TrEMBL record:
This is FAD-dependent oxidoreductase. PANTHER family: NADH DEHYDROGENASE, NADH DEHYDROGENASE-LIKE PROTEIN RV1812C. One of its GO terms (molecular function) is NADH dehydrogenase activity. Keywords: FAD, Flavoprotein, NAD, Oxidoreductase. It comes from Streptomyces shenzhenensis. The keyword Transcription regulation does not apply.
Length: 459
């Protein structure tokens, strides 16, 4: 039995936040029913995004709504608050909270008291002060960005097909991706595959007209799958006429011209930035212990070092890897560890409330899988290397097993099955980004996409 009524605050609705709350629902079912425990989840979005499926959503293999999991449906015993925690005073057990109603009410930020804290705000894109990046760069971390990028790519093909200006056509058909990790490689490979297929329906745009460029500052891509698989991936991408530029940096994209460190100047209307992530700014607004890299310093039991009743995992946490041979090793901040850490974290909070001993997080890294487009991929699993179709199939099997809820598994599997029987959908629904534009024009106003202060109008 729980010793006293406990208020558990979970900050973040991503992998760690959702899976921890889900685990707590199951482990503390009786206590929740009796009112001895209260779980509050604060998240900016009412859904969890399964990010490994973003490239397939961008390519049209999966519907956007099946890439996300509605939190209120899954966490039916939790109090889900759509908002953002901006500061935490753990000494006073208080979190400063801004919700969608804060501005409407005009009363300032709210304060939420808690007994147990789970910090899982995730990470944010790591950007550099590159001229033009803020104005013209496109991210690839959310489902909104993935679908917007798909619409954007098809729109560029439409522009190239209809213009008589060779300079405009060349810029429209040049796609620059910065960052050779999972997000960059998979996004580029899936979208190039989709655009290559879409080109058959254009009378004057062919695959050979498009330039796809991957820019990576280090000397390798996909380091998670090993050096050999990384070199194999480079070879496969280059065989598809994709330029892979290693040890190269983006120095500017001002004026819609990508300037690279090797001296190339590429007129382009598409610069996709996937060059890493950094800790969420919230972590710096707490009184908790941080590492030199700005992440929360955690113990092997996933408690925050030096703070009682505070826990963390995933991107925000620096967790010691007890399975590693070298001292001081940390678990990499990826989905494989985040999901497993969340289960141990949820169990340990339940153990704490019941006065039971805590568990230690220990998981040997199983390997990595990456998709390079339809029926193409690379994988390294338990030391075994897979290429081509077997790796692509393993990629789908693995992520189908990991996507939350049976509902989502069934829907994704059904879409994959249907996509194997019918042709790809290549329609662009860019108007979804400005749904009121047509009505505003009819009413005598200026469409939102044409307003000078609208950042999307410049894309």
């Amino acid at each position: 039995m729980v010793k006293e009524r406990a208020r558990i605050l979970v900050v973040g609705g991503g992998y760690v936040g959702m899976y921890t709350a889900l685990r707590l629902q199951r482990k503390l079912k009786r206590e929740l029913r009796q009112g001895d425990v209260e779980i509050t989840v604060v998240t900016p979005d009412p859904y969890m995004t399964y990010q490994p499926f973003l490239p397939e959503a961008a390519a049209g293999s999966i519907s956007p709504r099946h890439v996300v999991v509605p939190l209120r449906r899954v966490l039916d015993r939790c109090h889900v608050v759509i908002g953002e925690v901006t500061a935490i005073d753990h000494t006073k057990r208080t979190a400063t909270l801004i919700t969608l109603a804060t501005e409407e009410e005009g009363g300032g930020a709210d304060h939420l008291d808690y007994d147990e804290l789970v910090l899982a705000p995730g990470s944010v894109s790591r950007t550099l002060p590159i001229p033009g990046l803020a104005e013209h760069g496109i991210g690839f971390k959310t489902v909104e960005e993935a679908i917007s990028l798909r619409n954007h790519v098809i729109e560029q093909m439409d522009i190239a097909s209809s213009t008589r200006d060779p300079a405009i056509r060349d810029a429209a058909l040049t796609f620059v991706f910065v960052g050779g990790g999972y997000a960059g490689v998979e996004a580029l490979a899936e979208l190039e595959d989709m655009a290559r297929y879409a080109a058959r329906y254009y009378h004057n745009v062919g695959p050979e007209d498009m330039k796809w460029i991957l820019v990576e500052a280090s000397d390798r891509i996909l380091p998670e799958v090993g050096a050999d698989m990384g070199r194999y991936t480079v070879t496969q991408l280059r065989r598809r006429n994709i330029q892979v530029l290693l040890e190269t940096r983006l120095e500017s994209c001002a004026g819609r011209v990508a300037v690279l460190s090797d001296g190339q100047r590429l007129p382009t209307r598409t610069v996709v930035w996937t060059a890493g992530v950094k800790p969420h700014p919230l972590l710096a607004a707490t009184d908790l212990t941080l590492t030199g890299r700005g992440r929360l310093k955690c113990t092997a039991q996933l408690s925050i070092d030096g703070a009682d009743h505070a826990w963390a995992a995933g991107d925000a946490a620096s967790v010691p890897d007890v399975t590693a041979d070298e001292p001081g090793a940390e678990t990499p901040p990826n989905a494989q560890h985040a999901v497993r850490q969340a289960r141990v974290l949820g169990d340990n909070i339940a153990h704490t409330l019941r006065g039971e001993p805590l568990e230690t997080y220990a998981h040997t890294y199983a390997g990595s899988v990456a998709s390079l487009g339809l029926h193409k991929g690379v994988a390294q699993i338990y030391g075994r290397r897979l290429k081509g179709y077997p790796a692509w199939f393993m990629h789908r099997v693995y992520h189908l097993s990991r996507v939350p809820t049976f509902n989502r598994k069934a829907r994704v599997l059904a879409e994959w099955t249907l996509s194997g029987l019918f042709k790809r959908e290549i329609v662009s629904l860019g108007s979804l980004e400005h749904p009121r534009a047509e009505f505003e024009l009819a009413a005598g106003g200026k469409p939102q996409s044409e307003r000078p202060d609208d950042p999307k109008g410049s894309n």
